[in-house]
Backbone:
């Protein structure tokens, strides 16, 4: 949308104030009218003064008329035309210099911001690469631990310290007791109900409660009867230890490691 002259008025200075109107500098029509008026007034003054000189040759009269007109009109032309034009040019140059400074400052800020964004993107990409590498190392470590646990010669299981529900059990439970790991881990029951013989459940529960309040790193050991899938019982030597605690130190997850008594003899 094009702005009207009143949208951006020229700020007057002591030099330009005489040549400014409400809408800016005097218009070309106003300058032309003032110039014509100045020439008319100068010529009228000359016409009134010429009879006072007396009769002179026409050539001298023309020269005198031109000289007087020049002397009388020059100050007016200087004040109304030349001086405003010079001031306007100077203001225009000042405005252009200020605009160049603003553009240079803006370009500098854009360049700095672009460099900052480039550095941020590089840092973010580096962080993403490092995070992916870390995740890959953790995944490979977890896979190694998983393979190590699955190939261990003993039964290993983790269960919740509060609900006593089984969270994980390795494949040795199938070799020793005939249960499928997923059946025990996803049954929804406690570890006691799943594999521990009814007569030994109370003893095992007491050992778990004592372990929960024991110092960190304490290991509880014993011998207990485990149920088999066929309904029988087998003696196992076991150890339990708290492997995970909350931020306030409460037991969260417990690890069970058990081996058949026959394998230990």
Residues:
């Amino acid at each position: 949308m094009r702005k009207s002259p009143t949208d951006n008025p020229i700020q007057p200075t002591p030099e330009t104030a005489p040549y400014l109107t409400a809408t800016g500098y005097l218009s070309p029509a106003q300058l032309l009218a003032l110039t014509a008026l100045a020439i008319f007034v100068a010529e009228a003054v000359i016409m009134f003064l010429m009879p006072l000189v007396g009769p002179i040759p026409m050539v001298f009269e023309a020269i005198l008329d031109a000289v007087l007109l020049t002397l009388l009109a020059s100050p007016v032309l200087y004040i109304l035309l030349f001086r405003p034009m010079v001031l306007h040019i100077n203001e225009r140059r000042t405005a252009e210099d200020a605009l160049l400074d603003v553009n240079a400052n803006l370009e500098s800020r854009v360049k700095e911001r672009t460099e900052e964004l480039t550095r941020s993107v590089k840092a973010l990409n580096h962080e993403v690469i490092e995070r992916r590498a870390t995740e890959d190392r953790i995944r490979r470590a977890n896979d190694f631990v998983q393979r190590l646990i699955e190939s261990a010669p003993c039964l290993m299981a983790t269960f919740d310290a509060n609900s006593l529900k089984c969270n994980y059990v390795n494949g040795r439970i199938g070799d020793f007791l005939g249960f499928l790991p997923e059946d025990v881990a996803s049954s929804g029951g406690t570890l006691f109900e799943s594999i521990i013989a009814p007569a030994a459940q109370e003893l095992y529960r007491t050992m778990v409660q004592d372990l929960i309040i024991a110092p960190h790193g304490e290991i509880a050991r014993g011998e207990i009867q485990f149920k088999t899938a066929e309904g029988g019982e087998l003696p196992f030597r076991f150890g339990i230890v708290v492997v995970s605690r909350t931020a306030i130190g409460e037991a969260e997850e417990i690890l069970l490691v058990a081996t058949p008594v026959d394998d230990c003899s």
